[in-house]
Each structure stands twice: as C-alpha cells, then as structure tokens.
Amino acid sequence: MSSGTEHAPAAGDYIVHHLTHLTSTGHKQASVIDWSVFNVDTLFWSVSMGLLAVFLLMKAAKSATSGVPGRFQAAVEILVEMVESQSKNIVHGDRSFIAPVALTVFMWVLFMNAMDFLPVDSLPRIGEMFGIHYQRVVPTADLNGTLGMSLGVLLLCIYYNIKIKGFGGWVHELFTAPFGNHPLLYPINFAMQMIEFTAKTVSHGMRLFGNMYAGELVFMLIALMGSTATVAGFFGHVVAGSIWAVFHILIVVLQAFIFMMLTLVYIGQAHEAH
Q1: Residues spanned by the domain of 209
Q2: Which of 44, 123, 187, 204 is most buried, with most CB under 10 Å away?
Q3: Which of 247, 56, 37, 263 is closest to 142 using CA atoms?
C-alpha cells in the first residue's frame, strides 16, 4: 500500500494504517472505541451492506413463484425456513415481526463479515485515489458497530418486555426477580437485572467484534508475507491466504448465525415471565 513516500512502510506502520478509521473529524483514530467521533467508514459500509441485504431479500420476495423455484429462490427459501424454525423454537408468541428481524440480522451481519474476504489493500487503494487515506471496510471489526447492533437488540428486548408484560408488570419484575417479592430484596433484584441486561448487551457485541477483529489481523499478517519480495514469502502468502480464507468462511457464517441466535434468545427471554 502506498505510504506517501518512496519507501515501503514497516510492518507495524502497515498494520496501524489498516486499523485506523476514517472519522468524522478527518483525523485518524487508533483507539478501539471512541464516542466523541463517528467512524465514517463503519457507517458507510454497514449501511451499504444492510441495503444490499434488504435489496436481495426484496428481490427474492418479488420474484417468488409457486412453481419450480430457481436456485436463488431456493436458497432464500431454505434460509427463511431455517430462521423461522429457529424463531419458532425460541420465541413463544407472535413472530410476525421477530422472524423477519432475525432474517435481516443474519443477512446483514453475514454481508458485513464477508467484506473481510476482499483483498486487504483493494478498497483502501481505491480510496487513496480519491484522497481517502484511512479506511476500514469490515464494520463488524469495529466495536462501535457491533455494540451499536447489540444496543439495538437491547431496545427490542425492552420493547417486548413492556409490550407483553405491560410497563407496570415489567417494572414489578425488575424489582422482584430473581430472588422474590420482598422489600429488602428489591435493590438486589434490580441490581441483578441491570447487570444481566448490561452483560448480555456487551457480550453480544464483543463476541462478534473479537472474532472479526482477529480475522482481520490474520489477513493483514498474511498480506505482509507477500511484501517480503521473496519466493518463499510469495508462495507462503498465497498458500496461507487461501487456507485462512477457506477457514474464515466458517467463521463469517458462524458468527452471523450466533449473533442472530442470541438476538432470538434475548427477545425470547423478554416473552417469559419470572
């Protein structure tokens, strides 16, 4: 990748450059999470992948026929049936909105994860042609992005808690579960509930971020092998990159599935009374 000088960047500089976000302030950002600025690259690519997922699902719905389905329709139908089956087993109640949300979450996270399969330097090089010198293209490798999604799931959980139990019933549950309805236990129960909501939200976002961030780092290290200008480095880069890409397919799909399943589990818990 071009560094603006005639010398190739050192390994550390290369990795730091690729781990730097394009922010709303126009300056590079080396921290993992920072609430004072917006990571423009994360916002752009996450929204783009979300729109792509919605577009493909809408296209499949509009082109669906009652006859023999084509391969695209068959693939989408298998996916829809899988999500519907999982939501039926986990959420006991009206799933007319929940199942489509789970399907959208799975497709959205899958597409964002799949950005990791693009060559490490491809989009950053294109961005440099337009004066964009910092760009990270895997939204799920940004903790800001994954925590944002987990916070969205938290809001859905709160919504369904209030919708199903009523506001008064939910507040009553916050102070009486899990240890019982006694005034001395109210502070303990409330603290436990807050800890549970916080732990579920943080772990939901951290799990996805940790796996995708690690995968992104591995791809960068493999890319560095190809910059050694040696035969061993070149073939090592090709072989290791191919092996890791194949293995990463499992990670990309599995992490999207886990995020979707946890979304269903947390929403399903909101349907249950203690």
Answers
A1: 11-270
A2: 204
A3: 37
